[in-house]
Write a sequence for this structure.
DNA sequence: ATCCAGGCAGATG
DNA sequence: CATCTGCATGGA
């Protein structure tokens, strides 16, 4: 949950409650076992990507510079997130920081999403999003992205998710780039998190700084290949972990006495 | 006070 | 095609 793919999860009942679109799942881990209670088992079987063998993928990603990142974040899975939610979330994420835009997203949901029986709020549907004005987006803390969002939502209303899903990755990428507020990085996030294109590695400021210290060969190993997106996730989580700056601080999801709290900032992979 | 944050759009060379 | 600049906002 902490790997920065999705942002709507909360500490609850000694575990996490995650919300995606209008679905929810309660996760409780005890020892080697995880119990997941959810609104729709089939949906979350797909969401948590349980058909994919991540041990096999990690074997294929056994590059020296990835070892520590995999050791720290080896439980990461690519979540099958909702398309609309990813587009909106990552438009707001641009040139922003995780803590701040996580709050914006949660405010967006409580103000415009449907209240679920468990008291939490669904992500607004496309129909609900279409009713939000530029000013309202700005007041939610979206800043100058307000107008991109309104335009992007209009564009989303003309798109069919199933048709998009059928497109080859390069074509889908080009299509996503036509959405307002969506550039190369955000489009990559959507490809990876909403369409499960494991070969796409979003390059953000963190990843840029991390890979700049690697040799061209090492960069190529990590940013290319069939599981480049997953390799990128291991690195992103590892860097966030070192900096203890991820959204679990914002949500109070991490014990304050954790040893990593006093670690010095470092953006190195080794 | 200045810089930065999961970048992008629009203008200019 | 490559590079440059402005941009809301809050925290470090």
């Amino acid at each position: 949950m902490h790997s920065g793919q999705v942002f709507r999860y909360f500490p609850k009942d000694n575990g996490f409650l995650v919300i995606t679109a209008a679905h929810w799942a309660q996760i409780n881990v005890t020892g080697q076992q995880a119990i997941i209670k959810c609104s729709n088992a089939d949906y979350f079987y797909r969401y948590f990507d349980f058909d994919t063998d991540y041990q096999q993928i990690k074997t294929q990603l056994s590059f020296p510079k990835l070892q520590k990142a995999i050791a720290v974040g080896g439980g990461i899975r690519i979540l099958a997130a909702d398309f609309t939610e990813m587009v909106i979330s990552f438009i707001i994420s641009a040139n922003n920081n995780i803590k701040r835009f996580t709050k914006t997203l949660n405010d967006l949901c409580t103000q415009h999403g449907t209240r679920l029986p468990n008291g939490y709020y669904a992500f607004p549907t496309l129909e609900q999003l279409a009713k939000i004005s530029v000013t309202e987006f700005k007041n939610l803390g979206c800043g100058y992205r307000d107008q991109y969002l309104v335009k992007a939502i209009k564009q989303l209303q003309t798109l069919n998710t199933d048709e998009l899903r059928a497109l080859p990755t390069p074509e889908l990428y080009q299509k996503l780039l036509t959405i307002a507020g969506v550039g190369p990085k955000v489009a990559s996030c959507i490809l990876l998190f909403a369409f499960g294109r494991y070969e796409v590695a979003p390059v953000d400021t963190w990843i840029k700084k991390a890979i700049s210290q690697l040799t061209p060969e090492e960069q190529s190993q990590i940013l290319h290949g069939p599981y480049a997106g997953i390799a990128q996730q291991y690195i992103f989580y590892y860097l966030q972990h070192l900096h203890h700056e991820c959204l679990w601080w914002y949500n109070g999801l991490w014990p304050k006495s954790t040893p990593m709290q006093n670690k010095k900032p470092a953006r190195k992979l080794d």
